[in-house]
Design goal:
By secondary structure, this protein is α+β, with helices and mostly antiparallel strands. It contains two helices and six strands; from the N terminus they run ββββααββ. The mean pLDDT is about 80.
Length: about 140
């Protein structure tokens, strides 16, 4: 949401026209929708026809690693949307600790798990920035 002219603007109500090419590699084949913010982080706004199947697979694997890794406890504790309704969330999460100069892994109940979020600032998708490689390869 954005506050504009003393009103809250809800981006989830926006709809966008089809992009017509992959925002990552520029391909115009086998296009699918792309969530602007991943669904699993509460995103509902999509760009129609904006990612090819190959790039969707790559970004999907990356998102899965993050959403089932460091973001999993946050998503569960805040009850952020999940297609599986958080049915497969573990009861405990592994935590690395150092004790007596040795690293150990312990299980911590999800509700007690220390949440530290690191936010990486990514460049724009390939097609939208100066690093775009026309051959469709990732930089």
């Amino acid at each position: 949401m954005l506050i504009k002219n003393k009103q809250i603007y809800d981006f989830s109500k926006c709809s966008y026209p089809p992009v017509g090419q992959c925002i990552y590699c520029g391909s115009k084949e086998n296009l699918e929708k792309e969530h602007i913010i991943p669904y699993a982080l509460g995103g509902t706004t999509i760009l129609p026809l904006s990612t090819c199947r190959n790039c969707a697979k790559i970004t999907g694997h990356f998102e899965q690693e993050v959403l089932r890794g460091p973001m999993w406890p946050v998503r569960k504790l805040l009850q952020i949307k999940s297609r599986s309704k958080h049915a497969n969330v573990p009861k405990t999460m592994r935590l690395s600790i150092w004790k007596d100069e040795e690293e150990k892994q312990i299980g911590v109940p999800l509700e007690e798990y220390p949440v530290v979020l690191h936010f990486i600032v990514f460049d724009q998708p390939g097609y939208n920035n100066k690093h775009y490689i026309p051959e469709g390869r990732f930089f």
